[in-house]
Amino acid sequence: MSFDLQLTDLGYDDLVCETGPTKREYVSPDGHRFPSVTTVLSILSEEHIAKWKERVGEAEAERVSRRASNRGTLVHEIIEMYIRNDPDWAHGYMPHIISSFQAVRSTLDNRIGKVYGLETPLYSEHLGLAGRVDCVAEFDGKLSIIDFKTANKKKRKEWIENYFIQETAYAIMWEERTGQPITQLVTIIAADPEECQVFVEHRDNWTKPLLDCISEYKKRNP
Predict the structure, then answer these.
(1) Is pLDDT above 60 for 65?
(2) Which of 36, 136, 168, 183 has its CA 20 to 30 A from that of 199?
(3) CATH topology of domain 16-220
């Protein structure tokens, strides 16, 4: 499989990223600082995470979170290498990481068309946010924001609404940076054991929740 890469020139190569104890910030080319999308959206899951840590204990919560984060990072790496047509995409990865990738491989092969962005740094003066989108590409023939996730079990839509809100932010950022509107949001989840889930949403259904979350974040961080 070979992907058609037509990566968009945004006028800058990258954004400076600074991670502190409570937030991550990006610095735009003109020097403005913006909190990351994930930092702002973290307020949506604070209560849930606090209850989970109380239930399982801090040490176990840290172990599980670290393991999930490491797996997610490595699966993202393979997906990016694969879409970039790197022939060595599987080299050096453990079998369980490759297995997670294989869960989504046929979806990538059969449903992704022209690719316009991979791990692309974006920012929005309108939203006051920045972040790095996994993929901007045609999905089933329609230009989409595509987000790659990993999970230990199948997800229900109501459990992952923050994913759709995050993708909405990327869609707005992309349009602000390129003038190219995107309304289709795609979440591709590698769920063990070797199972792929795909959720397709419309940006406009999640714009208000995004703006509400940004407003609440600003109230808490004046």
Answers:
(1) no
(2) 36
(3) Trna Endonuclease; Chain: A, domain 1 (3.40.1350)
